[in-house]
Structures are given as C-alpha cells and as structure tokens.
Give the backbone structure.
Amino acid sequence: MIEKIAKMLGEVEALRAESLDEIEALRIKYLSKKGEITALMADFRNVPADQKKEIGIKINELKNKALEKINALKDEFAVAETGNDDLDITRTAYPVALGTRHPLTIVKNEIIDIFARLGFSLAEGPEVEDDWHVFSSMNFAEDHPARDMQDTFFVEAHPDIILRTHTSSVQSRVMEKQQPPVRVLCPGRVYRNEAISARAHCFFHQVEGLYVDENVSFTDLMQVLLLFSKEMFGEDTQIRMRPSYFPFTEPSAEMDVSCTLCKGKGCAMCKGSGWLEILGCGMVHPQVLEANGIDSTKYKGYAFGMGIERIANLKYQVKDLRLFSENDKRFLEEFEAAN
Ligand code: PHE
C-alpha cells in the first residue's frame, strides 16, 4: 500500500494538461467517486491497525497534493484564457486622464448646432485658396486694400495662391456647384498678416452663413440672427444692426448684441455702450450671385460671418487671444463641453 501511494504521488506531481477538458478528466481519474485515490481510501479499512496512522497520513497527503495540482493546472488555463499574462505591469494603475475639448471647438459646435436646427448644412473649403474664390468672385475690386500684402499671406512664387482671409471664399465654392435653394454654414480657419498681440492673431476662426433662394429678405436675416443670439447668449439678448460696407453684400450691416456681461447697462467690456459687435452680414450682392453662376433676377440671398474667437471671448471672457493657440493645459482644462 505504501508503495502504491508513493507511486501515485509521483504520478500526480508530474501531471500535465493541454486543456480544461483534460484537467477535468484527470480530476475524474483520481478524485471522483470512482477515482483511484478515492479507491485507495476505501481500501484503508483493510490496513492493519498498527499501520493505520502512517498510511492515513500518506493517503491524506496524496489527496491534498492531487487537489492542489489540479487547481494549479486550472489557474494556469484561466490566466491563458483571459490573456492576463499579457498585462503590461509597467502601465500606470491610475485611470488615464481624459482630454478636454478646445474652447474654440466647443463654441464652434454650439454655433453649428443652433444653425443645424434652422436647416443649415455644413460646407467646407480649402485654407490655401486662389484669388478668385477669396476676392474676385466676392466682388472685390482689383485695387481693394484687402488684397494688399498687409492683410493677405501670399504663397511665394504663386501670387494667385493665397491663404484665405475669410470664410466667404466657401460661399463661392458652394454656389459654383449648387443652384438654390442653398442654406449652408461654413466654419473654418482664416489667415491675416497681422502682428500677434492679445487682440490680434495671424490666424483665427470664422463661421460663415449663406442662404440663397427666391424671396429672401433682410428681415429673414435679422430673424435668424436674433434667434441665434438668444440661443447663444440667453433668451433676453437683444440685437441691433448698424449700416456697414462689404464688397460682397448690399446692403451690408454689422450686428451688435446687448452686452453679455452687464445686459446692456454699460460696463468695461462694452465700454459703457451696452452693445458688443459680433458679426458682419448683408444681402448677397447680385454681382456675387452672377459671378458664381446664379441668376440674380430670380434669386436673392443673405450672408453673415462671425469670428469664433470673438464669440468665445464674450462667453468666457478670455482676455488674451494668444491663449487659444498656446496649448497650455491649465487653460484648456478650464473648459468642459456638454457634448
Ligand atoms: N467676410 C467678412 C469678414 O471677414 C464677414 C462677412 C461675411 C460679412 C458675410 C458679410 C457677409 O469680416
């Protein structure tokens, strides 16, 4: 009996298995009701009394060894199956910090959301543009000062290729391909050759709006911009239009909203006036429609353009424009998007 136990102990210690099924087969072979170790224990009854103590201890040892071994084999498979042995134990245990959206992206998405509800779809155009789409098709005279080196970045050796100075170029990109009704919103980055300071940068972001159809009126434009302003700055926001000039709109206007800080009473932000300028707009000039292949006797349109930095400044009171492009995490982490 002692020899049998010793032999089986050797066997158990050498057990190997290739699968969980094989492990189960081993368990049945040794430890089930009809298993070999169970049979040994049944034989224990026939052991002479003077050997009972020694053999009892050995059988127990064997049984425990077999249980241990089978459990150890099972553990190995559990690790292999979940792939846990591939764990990168050098990785930090703490949750990896989520990034935050850029404040300009947050504001841009808010603007897009508001106009999407009014039926505006999105359109985009290239930042490196030609003179036609930025200026000529937008009714800029050949000698218009905006074409000047002071404002426009030219691509060296290609005087016709420039960095767009406004997103109005996308108006042209859309109209040359699509007949009315046109109702698009064009967000994007624009470039101007200006000295960088707290109040100006050589690039910034705009959102352009364009609506062309039959019977479009200036009142439609005002209604849409009033709704936008209330959604963006609050239900009690008011707007006012001041006559202005852009080559591509006639009549043209600049729009103010009631000061978002003092609600129109007059404060440092609105310089005591109670109003803040937020965008340029107007009725699309007939020559712009014609230059882009749209019949100006049949169709009319309105357009508006606003700076995203400007809107973000009014919402968040960011004092220095340069913060938007410096990638300082302490600044960026102050903004949380709802989506
Ligand atoms: N493109 C003008 C600007 O950059 C804004 C504008 C857009 C004005 C559309 C009128 C209509 O200032």
